[in-house]
Write a structure and sequence with these properties.
- The protein is an alpha+beta fold.
- It folds into 2 domains: 61 residues; 165 residues, Ubiquitin-like (UB roll) (Roll).
- The chain is 53% helix and 8% strand.
- It is built from 9 helices and 4 strands, in the order αααααααββαβαβ.
- It has a 4-stranded mixed sheet.
- β1 and β2 form a beta hairpin.
- α2 runs antiparallel to α3 and α5 crosses α8.
- The longest helix has 28 residues.
- The chain is elongated, with a radius of gyration of 28 Å.
- The two termini are 41 Å apart.
- 14% of the residues are buried.
Length: 266
C-alpha cells in the first residue's frame, strides 16, 4: 500500500529538488495533522498553529530561491537536449552585473582623481583653488561652477564610459562604465540584457542576430563574442575590449543583422 506522500507524486516523476520539497512538506503536514487529531488542549492548539503557518514558512524561502537562483530547483535532465545547463545557469546568474558592480565601485572610488584632473585642466578653477575667490562675482561663480560640472561630466564620459544606442531594438541610449581592460563578454552581456528588456532575442547570437557599430567611423566589430569563442573552443570571450579597438568614450550602436528575426517568446 502506497503512502500518502508517495501517492501524491505523479508516476514517472524524476527525483528533483522540487519533488523533494513537495515530499518534505506533505510528510510534515501528514505527521503534524495526525498529532493534531491524537492530542487536545494546548498541544493540539500549538500543532494546529504549526499546521497553518508551516506552509508560509516554506513558501517565503521558496519564492526567494525562485527569484534569485531558480536553476537549483531543476535536475540536469529538466533542461532537455537543446539547452546547455551551464550556459543557462551562467546567463541566469548575470555574472556580468556582479562584475559591472565592481567596475562601478571602482569608478566611484576614482571619482576624486577624475574630478581633480578636470579641475586642474580648467584655468579659472586653478585660480579659485589657489584662494582667489574674490576674483569672481556671485553670478560669475555660478556660471563657472556650471562650467566646471560640465567639464567633469565630459571627463567622465570620455575616460570611464561607453555609450550604446539601442534604438534598433526599441531601446534608448545607454551608458556603461568600462575600462580598457573590461572583458568583452561583460560588455556584450550587459548590452544583451538591456536589449532583451525591450526586444527579446536569442542569447549567444552576437554576430548573427546583432552587432556593435562605431557611430562615428561606421566600423563593425564581428570578431568577438560567443560565436568567436565557440569557433576557438572557448567558453566566453574574456579578452579586454581594447583588443578589438573599443575604448572608453566611444559611441556605439547595436544593430540588427539581416536574416535574423525576433526570438520566439512564450
Amino acid at each position: 500500500m502506497k503512502s500518502v506522500v508517495a501517492s501524491a507524486i505523479p508516476k514517472g516523476s524524476k527525483i528533483t529538488p522540487l519533488v523533494i520539497i513537495l515530499s518534505f512538506v506533505l510528510l510534515t503536514e501528514v505527521v503534524v495533522m495526525t498529532g493534531v487529531l491524537a492530542t487536545k488542549d494546548t498541544v493540539q492548539l500549538l500543532l494546529t498553529i504549526f499546521c497553518v503557518f508551516f506552509p508560509s514558512a516554506i513558501a517565503v524561502p521558496f519564492f526567494l530561491i525562485l527569484a534569485k537562483t531558480p536553476w537549483v530547483l531543476y535536475a540536469p535532465g529538466d533542461f532537455g537536449t537543446k539547452v546547455d545547463p551551464t550556459s543557462y545557469i551562467n546567463a541566469m546568474r548575470a555574472q556580468t552585473y556582479i562584475r559591472a558592480t565592481a567596475t562601478t565601485k571602482k569608478l566611484i572610488a576614482d571619482l576624486p582623481d577624475i574630478i581633480d584632473r578636470a579641475l586642474t585642466n580648467a584655468e579659472d578653477v586653478a585660480h579659485e583653488k589657489k584662494g582667489n575667490e574674490n576674483n569672481f562675482p556671485n553670478a560669475d561663480r555660478g556660471i563657472q561652477l556650471q562650467s566646471n560640472i560640465s567639464t567633469i561630466i565630459s571627463e567622465i564620459e570620455k575616460n570611464e564610459l561607453i555609450s550604446v544606442d539601442l534604438s534598433d531594438f526599441d531601446g534608448s541610449v545607454t551608458k556603461f562604465p568600462v575600462s580598457r581592460s573590461t572583458p568583452i563578454s561583460d560588455v556584450l552581456d550587459a548590452i544583451y540584457f538591456d536589449i532583451y528588456r525591450t526586444y527579446p532575442i536569442e542569447a549567444h547570437t552576437y554576430g548573427q542576430s546583432w552587432m556593435l557599430v562605431d557611430v562615428n567611423s561606421g566600423r563593425k566589430y564581428p570578431e568577438m563574442g560567443s560565436m568567436w569563442s565557440k569557433d576557438r573552443g572557448l567558453e566566453s570571450d574574456e579578452r579586454p575590449i581594447e583588443n578589438v579597438g573599443i575604448s572608453p568614450g566611444m559611441n556605439l550602436k547595436a544593430v540588427k543583422l539581416k536574416g535574423r528575426g525576433r526570438a520566439a517568446t512564450t
